[in-house]
Specification:
Layout (H helix, E strand, L loop, with lengths): L1 H27 L10 E2 L2 E3 L5 H4 L7 H14 L16 H6 L4 E2 L2
Parallel strand pairs: 2-3
Antiparallel strand pairs: 1-2
């Protein structure tokens, strides 16, 4: 019984360490190329990012993220970061707060 409890503790600690490493990678901008998403070299690619990824931008909530996706679907991919200001709810302030965090690929 004691051996089984010890094994459970070791597994729990290992999983905890793996999860904290993944969280640190996410905060640092590192990504796993095998996972889909809108991240490009630590930046958020507004032409591929989904709702959750777009909401990581300062000043972008669920509604604004949905409008960005709708705009992209209706008008095609963004050509420049500044084109994001054409979306209702995204103004100069949002672009300034996220300078260097947005990519267009």
């Amino acid at each position: 019984m004691r051996r089984r409890i010890g094994s459970v503790v070791i597994v729990a600690l290992t999983l905890s360490l793996l999860a904290s490493g993944a969280a640190a990678d996410e905060r640092s901008g590192k990504t796993d190329p095998s996972r889909p998403g809108g991240k490009v070299e630590g930046k958020i690619n507004i032409n591929e990012a989904g709702r959750a990824e777009l909401m990581k931008l300062s000043g972008v909530g669920a509604g604004t993220a949905d409008r960005i996706i709708s705009y992209r679907q209706a008008h095609g991919p963004f050509r420049r970061v500044q084109d994001l200001a054409k979306v209702e709810g995204v103004g100069k302030g949002v672009l300034e707060r996220n300078e260097g965090r947005i990519a267009v690929k």
